[in-house]
Amino acid sequence: MPSDLFAVAGLGLGLLLPRITVAPTVASSRVTDALIWVGFGVLGLVSIIFSLLFLVVQWAFSSLSPRLNLFRDDPIVWRTFRFAVGVFVFSVTAALVIGNDPEVSVIVPAAEVAGVLAALALIRALQVKAFASIQLAPTLSAIAARGRSILDDLYPRPRPDSRPPGAPLPPLRRAVAWPHRQAILQQLDLRQLVGAAGGAVIVLRARIGDTLQDGTVVAGLHGGDVSDAAILGGLVTGQERTFGEDPLLRVPAAGRHRLAGAVKVVLALPSWDDYLRIALEDLIESASRSPMVLLRARALLTGLLDAAPPQRRSSITWRLQRAEELAASNFPLIWRHAAGADPA
Predict the structure, then answer these.
(1) For 55-112, what is each residue's pLDDT tens digit?
(2) How far apart are CA 191 and CA 171, in angstroms?
(3) φ/ψ (deg, to 5) at 203
(4) Are residues 137 and 9 in the same domain?
């Protein structure tokens, strides 16, 4: 529900409830003062809490990755602010409508109290969410859950062991370069790209999550020609990478997209080796002086090797061997214990 709708709801209630004359009633002067003070107080309280929470939580997230906006994007954050705006609009509107009336129905202050209590409940839920967001375990759990969700979307079924090679592409006609300032490729409008291809095959060379500099080649046109504007119009860019693009996860599942059976768009997708490289190579090499990290990496790769299909095991095996080699050479006693051998 957009914030303007909360404001409209507050405005409507502020106009309607003071017109109700149902008993019991209270002195309007006391109600008007309470409405003004409470309305501005709730808005000020929410503003201060939001400022502090965003400062603390975003600082904590930046120590892990500047792209972790789990707290900022949580619905409770904006629902709390929107509801506080609605309470403020109701309070000010009701106070103005009451005006110089000698008495007003108790429904008005009762509605104000209910709104404030609901706002406090949302603020409390917001605080709990913020505290959980600056703790490592809940953050890692949220990252893992979102990562699994993305992978489930990308790979709903196991890949076959072997796939027939795609038909060869027509000859390359020309390349399309990025003509603007630096930007991050955040998503693709595949419907527009497929529709704009015409007699050409658009081979995208930029992956989602890549940084596009002025002059970066983003696509190649094979067999036909398409205007640069049509290609660039299918690229959704922004100033920063989002959570989904950070680990090379958010990409369309299919590599080739067709129209009437003909290939129109070919995507640059991360391979299985790309996933392993991003996740493990820097970790293993930088942990050459940390035995516990090497042993955890070995356990992870061992379990992954047991679960992986045969065609993916070679890229796991040599990384496993590298982790074992570093552990054995740098920490021989620890390695012998971990490998199950008797210590010297």
Answers:
(1) 766 666 555 555 556 666 677 878 888 888 888 889 889 888 888 788 888 888 899 8
(2) 24
(3) -105, 105
(4) yes
